[in-house]
């Protein structure tokens, strides 16, 4: 990471610390970048967030945090070794009542294709690393969602607020639509997943219009066929997703 980038990263981390906002996935050195963000969970337990970035999402390899340089917590590939690296850290951190979240910047910016190796990797993290929520991001639009062993795998959440407004050529993906995803584990190990669609315009968010809700519902139904999930309206501004 260049000196300008390092200074901007340090400024960002200082701002987050000053606002008492927990963060993970980047830091002044390798150990800090690999550290988890730990948040209290209402009702007891904690939410533990591990965060990674991958070069296949456009993250330069030079941004890797090292013992002597700031940067991001880079994951090299979807190999068994990478699974074991995450599993070892997750098992070491986990306490009874915790929810383990893996936030990972992976895959291309556009398109609905999910690499089979990516899907196998995500499933293995649920099965062997004890990950409760895979929070994937990089795509500028929402992707299909999977529920594996009752745990949500969000392959691409899309953007919430960004500076991509006005970039043309991708209107078919509806990049103006954003999602709030609410995951609950109150009824046992299987997650309850509620989605609240939003529409972004001029850096502002509002509830999605009825036509937008219908478009998103159709998209999740289409993409969910290969992932084994269904979606339906569950409120004026809400969709509910479950395993088919």
UniProtKB/TrEMBL annotation:
<comment type="similarity">
    <text>Belongs to the CapA family.</text>
</comment>
<feature type="domain" description="Capsule synthesis protein CapA">
    <location>
        <begin position="1"/>
        <end position="164"/>
    </location>
</feature>
<dbReference type="Pfam" id="PF09587">
    <property type="entry name" value="PGA_cap"/>
</dbReference>
<protein>
    <submittedName>
        <fullName>Metallo-dependent phosphatase putative capsule biosynthesis protein</fullName>
    </submittedName>
</protein>
<dbReference type="InterPro" id="IPR029052">
    <property type="entry name" value="Metallo-depent_PP-like"/>
</dbReference>
<dbReference type="InterPro" id="IPR019079">
    <property type="entry name" value="Capsule_synth_CapA"/>
</dbReference>
<dbReference type="InterPro" id="IPR052169">
    <property type="entry name" value="CW_Biosynth-Accessory"/>
</dbReference>
């Amino acid at each position: 990471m260049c000196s300008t980038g390092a200074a901007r990263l340090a400024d960002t981390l200082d701002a987050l610390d000053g606002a008492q906002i927990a963060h993970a996935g980047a830091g002044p050195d390798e150990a800090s970048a690999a550290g988890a963000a730990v948040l209290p969970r209402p009702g007891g337990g904690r939410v533990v967030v591990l965060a990674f970035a991958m070069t296949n999402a456009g993250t330069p390899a030079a941004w890797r945090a090292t013992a002597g340089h700031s940067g991001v917590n880079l994951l090299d590939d979807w190999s068994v070794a990478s699974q074991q690296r995450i599993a070892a850290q997750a098992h070491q951190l986990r306490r009874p009542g915790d929810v383990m979240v893996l936030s990972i910047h992976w895959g291309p910016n556009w398109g609905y294709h999910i690499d089979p190796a990516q899907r196998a990797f995500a499933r293995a993290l649920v099965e062997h690393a004890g990950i409760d929520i895979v929070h994937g991001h990089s795509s500028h639009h929402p992707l299909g969602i999977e529920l594996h062993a009752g745990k949500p795998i969000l392959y691409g959440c899309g953007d919430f607020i960004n500076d991509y407004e006005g970039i043309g050529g991708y209107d078919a993906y509806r990049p103006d639509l954003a999602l709030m995803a609410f995951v609950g584990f109150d009824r046992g190990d299987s997650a309850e997943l509620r989605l609240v669609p939003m529409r972004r315009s001029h850096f502002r968010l509002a509830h999605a219009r009825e036509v937008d809700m219908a478009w998103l519902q159709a998209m999740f139904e289409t993409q969910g066929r290969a992932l084994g999930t269904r979606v339906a309206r569950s409120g004026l501004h809400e969709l509910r997703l479950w395993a088919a």
